[in-house]
Structure formats: C-alpha cells, structure tokens
Design a protein that fits this description.
Elements lengths: L17 E6 L6 H17 L3 E6 L1 H9 L5 E4 L12 H8 L9 H8 L1 H10 L7 E4 L5 H8 L3 E5 L9 E3 L5 H8 L6 E5 L3 E11 L2 E4 L3 E4 L7 H6 L4 E3 L5 H17 L5 E9 L5 E7 L9 H8 L4 H10 L12
Parallel strand pairs: 1-2, 1-3
Antiparallel strand pairs: 4-7, 5-6, 5-7, 8-9, 8-10, 8-12, 10-11, 12-13
Helix pairs in contact: 1-11
The chain binds adenosine-5'-diphosphate (ADP) and magnesium ion.
The site of adenosine-5'-diphosphate (ADP) has 19 residues, from β5, β7, β12 and β13.
Length: 328
C-alpha cells in the first residue's frame, strides 16, 4: 500500500541553528541511547546541520547556559527524568529551547501505561482489558476478573523489563513480585495471543502519518528483553500486514498517537488477536530507538525515507505545528 508523504518543509540546514543531540544519560537504556545518538549526529552532520553531542541533562543545561544551543534533538530513552517522561520537556519549555518530539503532556502520559489506556478507552480505542494493581490487592481476584492467561507489568517501565506472562494461578505471585521491583503502579492485562506489531508515526506539514507496520516475529515465545536487544534471530516483516488490515492498524495507530497528545514522531505497539483479527493497543514510545536494528528507520526505509532524511524530518518537529511539531 503506497503512502503519500509530503516533502520536508525545510531545505536549508542553517534554519536549525546549533543542534544539541541529547543522548546517553543515566537510565538503564543509556547504551541504546548512545548508539541511537551517534547515528543521529552523523546523519544530521552529513546533511550540513551544525550538530553536536551532549551526554545527559546536566550537560545540556550547561550548554544552554553557555548560549550554545538553538534546539535539541532528544534521543534519550527512559523514564524518571530520563528524558522521555516529560521532565526534560518541561525544563526545555521553561528555558524556551525548542526540542523534537512530544511535549510535556504527550511524553508524561505515554510513559504511564495505565493512564494512556484510560484515555484510549474513553475514546473507544481498543486496548487489552486491565486491572490496576494497588498495594495489597489480591492478584488472584484480579486474574479471575480478567480470566487467565494474563500479562503483569509495571505501568511506567520500558524494554519489557518487569513484564511476565502468566498462564496459571501458581505464577501470579512471582509475576507480581517481579513487576513490583520497579517504581510506580502495576497493571494486569488480558494476554492477547497473536501477532505483535508496531507502527511508526511521523509528523509532516499536513498532520501525522503512520508508516507501514512492522510485524515482529521473535524466535522465542514473546518479544522480551532478550528478543529486543540481544537475539539476532528476531524477524521483522515490513509491511507487517496487507490490504484492509494494514490500513486499519495504521488508522488506529495515528488515532492512538493523537489521543495520547503525542506529536512529531513516535512508535505505537499493538497486538493482533489471532482468533478474531482484532487489534489491541499496548503503548506509545515517544523517543524510539534509532540504532541500526531499530524499527522506525526500517519502516521509514520502506516508504523511501532514508535514515538521514528521517533524522531531518524529526528535527523539523522542533519547529512548531506547521512542521508536524508542537506550538513553538
Ligand atoms: N496484553 C498483552 N498481551 C500479549 N503480550 C503483551 C501484552 N502486553 C505486553 N505484552 C508483551 O510484552 C512486551 C512489552 O510490553 P509493552 O506493553 O510494550 O511494554 P514495554 O515495551 O514498555 O516494556 C510487548 O512487546 C509484548 O511482547
Ligand atoms: Mg513496548
């Protein structure tokens, strides 16, 4: 299925000024972020942008104080002030420094899976049924409400950490214990059996567009941390679907992205129930990876947008709404 994406808005790299490519930081995803950041830096420089690397938020504040930064390309991954959860975005708003990607609201909401689901459900968007698990709640009661099998996961983590698939009552306590090692709330979700898909969303001058979906086929049972970052045998098929199913997943992904207040670029994770063919939204990632294995660059390539152009387009999201970004 073809996609019509309008050309980039800007042609002169000088328009962007001095661009801090913000990477690294202190989160668990530091190494992935450094890898993404180096790629972005190289791509922007190859296109003539005056870009330089900055490792972590304190160093960025120093650079801004020194008057060296006109805008920020944010490629930090992680929550709790790690760059992806709205804290950095608030800081940059206060300092009046433009940045790529979602604003405070979209970043903070998307980091919280429970509240993202509440927004989607209120708009009739499909997401697995869930129970919020508070301290002292009985996991067995929750599991009976949803019906086994279920997924137990922390509400505010990433990279599949703390996520368990539970098929019988005996596994519930252990899943709870694992998820509870991470800060914030926990949720139990109906386990969707079927294909795992992800859809990249990119902002342009005429709104946000879904790129072709990617179907993820892990060698093991599911897309756990190992399948994401270590295993070399995970398969990625793009486009992941065809015909009406592909059109529908793209439509749902853009609606879900917009509903969560996201802008510029991102990636929406989706499960497709094998029996019914129905889609279920899992989460939005607001600063997805840009490594050589990453999924957004794969989807972009499929529509003829190479890595350099992708970075350029994401950088344009820092320019304001006319470029598919936020209000400046
Ligand atoms: N409700 C669900 N049904 C089936 N698999 C799920 C479900 N929720 C999560 N998973 C699996 O766990 C992985 C991680 O879950 P996700 O909600 O995307 O969190 P994160 O990627 O932030 O860790 C997914 O990629 C998927 O393989
Ligand atoms: Mg995910």
């Amino acid at each position: 299925m073809s996609i019509d994406i309008v050309p980039p808005r800007i042609s002169d790299p000088a328009v962007f000024g001095r661009v801090a490519v913000l990477m690294g930081g202190t989160s668990a995803e530091r190494e992935v972020s450094l890898d993404s950041g180096r790629n972005v830096l190289e791509a922007l420089r190859a296109r003539g942008v005056e870009a330089f690397a900055v490792d972590g938020i304190p160093a960025l504040v120093e650079a801004i104080r020194g008057g060296d930064v006109d805008r920020v390309f944010n490629i930090l991954h992680g929550n709790k002030g790690g760059g992806e959860d709205g804290v950095l975005q608030g800081l940059l708003e206060a300092l009046r420094v433009p940045y790529t990607g979602s604003d405070v609201l979209g970043s903070a909401l998307s980091m919280d899976k429970i509240r993202t689901k509440q927004v989607w459900l209120s708009l009739g968007l499909p997401t697995p049924r869930y129970v919020r698990l508070g301290k002292g709640d009985d996991v067995h009661v929750a599991a009976r409400e949803l019906g086994l099998p279920v997924i137990v996961k922390p509400s505010c983590e990433g990279s599949s950490v703390g996520v368990s698939r539970v098929h019988d009552d005996a596994g519930l306590e252990q899943a709870l214990e694992l998820a509870a090692r991470y800060p914030g709330e926990l949720l139990m979700e109906q386990l969707i059996t079927g294909d795992e898909l992800t859809v990249a969303v990119l902002g342009t001058t005429d709104g946000h567009h879904a790129l072709p979906s990617i179907r993820i086929v892990p060698k093991g049972e599911w897309y756990d941390y190992n399948a994401k970052y270590i295993a070399e045998d995970t398969q990625y098929l793009c486009p992941g679907l065809d015909g009406e199913a592909e059109a529908e997943i793209r439509r749902i992904a853009v609606e879900a992205f917009n509903a969560a207040g996201c802008t510029g670029w991102g990636r929406v994770d989706v499960m497709r129930d094998r029996a019914s063919g129905k889609f279920y939204l899992l989460e939005v990632n607001t600063a997805p990876g840009m490594t050589s294995h990453s999924l957004v660059p794969k989807a972009a390539r499929e529509v003829g947008i190479g890595f350099e152009e992708l970075c350029w387009r994401v950088l344009e999201s820092s320019l304001g709404p006319d470029a598919g970004g936020r209000d400046a």
